C-alpha cells in the first residue's frame, strides 16, 4: 500500500472510523476532488464567457450608436424635405399655380405615408415643424382640402409612433350613458368590432359638456368613438377610429395609439388634428 493510503488508514483508525467508513471515504475523497476541479473549470469558462459577452455588448452598443446617428440624419433629411415640399406648395399657390401646389402636397402626403408604413421614427420636433408649415399655408383657400388631408396624415403618423399603455383597470364592454353627471374612471373598454361605439351617449343627452359626462384614467381599445359631449381626462385610445362631429369636446392629457381620424375640414377639426400631432398642448377644449 502506498504511503498516503497508509497514513490515511492510521488516521482513520485513530479517529475510530470503522472499516466500511474508511472505504466510503476513500471513494468519496477523489470524487469530491474531481467535482471541485470540475466546478473550478466551469467557473473559469463562465468568467471567460462573461468577458466575451461584455466585449460583444460594447460592439453592439457601438453599432446601436451608429444606427442612432443614421436615424438622426434620416429624420433631419425627412423633415427638411417635407418642409421644402410644403414651402414649394405655398410658392406655387402664390404664383397662381394651384395644380403645381397640389402636386407638391400630393408628394408630401405620399412621403409621409411611406414613412409611417416603414415605421420611420422621428422626434417631436418633426411634428411641430410640419404643423407650423401647415399653419403658414392656412390662408391659401385653394389648398384647404389638401392642408386638411395632410393634417390627418400627420396625426395618424404621430399616433402610429405612440407607445401602447400597459393594460390596467376593470375590463368592460361598450356601454350606454343616458343620465347627466356621470363619471367613469379606471376601466378598460374593449369592443368586438370596428363599427361598435365604446361609449355611447343616448337621449335625452344632447352631447353637451354641461351634461358633465367624464371618462377618466381609462383605456379604450378598438371601435369608433365620437369625442363630442364628453370630458376625456387621462384617457388612451388604442386602435380606435376617432370621430369628431363638430360639437363640444374636452381633452386633457389624452393619447392616441395606432388610431385613425375622421375629422371635419373646419377650424375645430384642424385644431383637434394639431392637438394629436403636436402634443405640446396637454389640454384642448372646444365649446
Keywords:
287 residues; alpha/beta; Pectate Lyase C-like; 3 domains; 8-stranded mixed beta sheet; 3-stranded parallel beta sheet; 53% helix
The CATH class assignment of the largest domain is: Mainly Beta
- Mean of pLDDT: 82
What's the story with the biggest beta sheet? 8 strands, mixed
Let me know the number of strands: 13
Strand composition percent: 15-25%
End-to-end C-alpha gap? 104 Å
Shape: flat
Total helices: the number is: 6
Roughly how much helix do the residues carry, as a percent range? 40-55%
Structural class call reads: alpha/beta
Low-confidence segments: 34-40
Care to give the gist of this entry?
The chain has 287 residues and is α/β, with parallel strands linked by helices. It has helices at residues 3-14, 19-94, 98-117, 124-136, 144-161, 267-278; strands at residues 170-172, 175-177, 182-185, 187-190, 199-201, 213-221, 224-226, 231-238, 241-243, 249-252, 255-257, 260-262, 283-286.
